[in-house]
Each structure stands twice: as structure tokens, then as C-alpha cells.
Amino acid sequence: MSTKNDLRSVCFDAQQPHYLDQFLPVYRELERRNITCEILFHADQHNIKHIRRLIRKESIQAQIAYSHQQAIAYHHINRPTWILFGDECEYLNKLPKPRRTCKTAQIYHAIGVKSDIYKPQLMEMGIRFVEGPYYARELRKRYPDKRTLTVGYPKLDPLFSPDTDLTYINLEELGLKHDRKTLLYAPTFEPNSISQMPEEWPDDYADYNLIIKPHPLTCSEEKYRSDRNRIAEWAEFENVYVIPPSESSVLPYMAATDLLIADASSTLFEFAAQDKPSIWLDFFDLHWSYRGPLNYRLQKTLDHKIFQYANMCPHADDYNALKKMVEQQLAMPDEYTRRRNGYSRELLGKTDGKVSERIADFLFPETKGMSMAALPSPGMGSSSSYGY
């Protein structure tokens, strides 16, 4: 990575591998400006193989930490100009004091219906990059003395940039049919609808291509084994393709999809930016700790105010209602266009493919206007374990 004398370097502190979705467009933009970049992945026995695959696939410079102590040591030795986080940081007060180096910023890894996005710990960095006007207002009300900058949602840049390197999805190469409508099913990790979908549900949708995108935590954590088993059964149907965990981004599949089916999650709002129809599933399996008199625990996790935007698409109360909604939305894809467009502007901000440029302009204002510089030739990506 950098040295203590390198004043133009950035570390993306990725406590979960899927934070790479938000980080990667910014990483690429900074690379174009000849800024030294590196991802610091936090690994354990469950995700280390996945992390190494991501590093190779995306050709990124990376280090791997197996503990907070190793991550702290990394930052003290390398002292990057900026450290960017995708969530709270438990060791923030143990980092080098920000002077000319080691300034901190927050690019939260998702949007959606969870109240986590307002955690006080997310406002402890030097600045927080904010998605759209809705979140800008909410954060100003809660933290009027904290520094924020409204820039948009960097994850979506590849969908809207004229110079995108977004991968083209050939449906036939996935074993699907090019002359069928394609549905993307993207359940979240908890609570989700997986166990509420019939084992044979791909048969009910035999005239459609079904692409399934499990949440990264569903793919890696032991407690979601039953969900993984159910998804593996669906993968055996001829009209189903399950996106493997090695795929770091769902965006190419969004671009190839006609309609999204999802639980309450950020994917619904991200997909709406394309002005394509979606269906919001209101049936899911609640863990016992969220049921009955303990439901207040679930309610505490939700951002109830954001449900004012929930009418951007139809809601399915049970599986039996879903099929008719799919048919209706594909027949009338513009029915919710006005709401989708308005809500996307409110929640995601500008979807102009230039969010990463705005972030880079702030981090290194002296490089503004350099975003079209030629990229260095990509390598194979490298990684090492930091510390012990």
C-alpha cells in the first residue's frame, strides 16, 4: 500500500465482503486519478475463500485482517490519507490521529428499511457521504453538528455511467432462454421469504427465467444453512440460475432483468432507479425472537418513516398473490413509473453515473477533472494477511 510519506492514498476498510459493492466504483475512480488504493478485508474461517476469490476476480489491491488488532496495526503502519468505512468502526478511537493523513469518512453500505442507517457510530467519522435528500434531512435533524455531504449512491454508478464496464449478461450462457421474460428474486438474510416460497415454485413460473440472488450472509453463515439448502434445490430447475457468491455485484443481473421480486431491502430501492417493475414481498419467516410479544424487537430495527415510500410497487401478502402481480406488472411496466422516479431521487439522489467522481473530488480536490485519465493495466489482484 502506501507509506507514511504518501499523501495520496486511500484504504477502504471492508468489515464485510459485500461492502465492496459500494466501495468498488469509488476505488476505480480514484485509481483513474493515480491515487493509491487498497481494500482491507476483515476475514474469518467462513468467508476467507470468498474474499480471495473477490480479490482475484476484481483485480484489486487488498490486505486481509483476522482481528481488530491486526486492522489497527495496518492503519498505524500505512497511515493512508483517507480511511473509508462502510459501517461503524469499533476501533475508531485507536486509529492514528487525523492530521494530514488518516482522515476518516463513511460510505454506508446500503439503504432500505432498517434503522441501522442512523446509528450514532456512523457519524463519528470526519465526514459522512449521504445518498439522497431524504437521508440528508433525517441525518441533519438527528446530528445537526455532524459533517455530511450529499453525493448519491456510488454502487449504482456502473448502471448509469456512459463509460461503464458493467458486465453483459448472456442469458443463454446461464442456461436460460433469451425469449422469456426474466425475473430476479433477491431475498434478504433475516427475516426473509425463502422458507415461505414452495419447494416447487420454479414450476409455477416455467414460462419465465428465474435468477436468484441470495444475500451474502445467507451464503456464508451457518445459521442460514436451511435457506442455502432450499436455494440449492431450486437451482436444479431448468429455468433457474442462482448467482454464485463469487459474483461481487448484482448490477449486471439487474440490467438483464425485467422484474424484481424481493423482501424489504435496499435491492428494491436500487432496482427502482432503472424504472423497471418490482414486487415487494410482505410474507416472510420471523425468527422466534421477533414473534408475538417479542415483535417489538423487530420494530426497533425498522425505519418506519421510510415506509412512506413503500407504495412504489405492489405488495404481495402471500405466495398465492404473487403470480397475478407478476403478470400485471409485466403487462403494465409503467404503472408505477412516476413514484419510482420520484422516490429514487429522494432516497438515492442523483443517478448520473458520477457519484464516485463527486466523492473523489471531495477527497482529493486537486485531482478534479482527472477522471478520464487512462486506467493502469489491471493485474490479477494481490492480498496478504496483515499482522500475525
Can you put this structure into words, describing what you see?
The chain is of the alpha/beta class and 388 residues long. 31% of the residues lie in helices and 14% in strands. It has 2 domains: 9-162 and 353-367, Rossmann fold; 171-348, CDP-glycerol glycerophosphotransferase, C-terminal domain (Rossmann fold), CATH 3.40.50.12580. The protein has helices at 20-32, 48-58, 68-78, 133-142, 157-160, 201-204, 216-220, 225-234, 251-255, 266-272, 295-301, 319-331, 337-348, 355-363; strands at residues 9-14, 36-42, 62-65, 82-85, 103-107, 127-130, 148-150, 182-186, 209-212, 240-242, 259-262, 278-281, 315-316. It has a 7-stranded parallel beta sheet with strand order 3-2-1-4-5-6-7, with helices on both faces. A 6-stranded parallel beta sheet has the order 10-9-8-11-12-13, with helices on both faces. The longest helix has 13 residues, at 20-32. The chain is globular, with a radius of gyration of 21 Å. The two termini are 18 Å apart.
Give the structure's gist in a few sentences.
It is built from 14 helices and 13 strands.
Evaluate the radius of gyration.
21 Å
Query: Domains counted in the coordinates: how many?
Result: 2
Give the distance, in angstroms, between the N- and C-terminal Cα atoms.
Answer: 18 Å
Low-confidence stretches: 288-300, 373-380, 383-388
Q: Give average pLDDT, whole number.
A: 86
Tally of DSSP β-strands: 13
What is the CATH level 1 assignment of the largest domain?
Answer: Alpha Beta
**Major sheet, described briefly?**
7 strands, parallel
Structural class: alpha/beta
Total count of helical runs of at least 4 residues: 14
Q: What is the succession of H and E elements? A: EHEHEHEEEHEHEHEHHEHEHEHEHHH
Output the CATH homologous superfamily of the largest domain.
CDP-glycerol glycerophosphotransferase, C-terminal domain
What percent of the residues sit in helical stretches (DSSP H or I)? 25-40%
What form results from the Cα inertia axes? globular
Q: Strands across the major sheet, in which order? A: 3-2-1-4-5-6-7
CATH architecture identity of the largest domain: 3-Layer(aba) Sandwich
Using the coordinates shown, work out and report the CATH topology of the largest domain: Rossmann fold
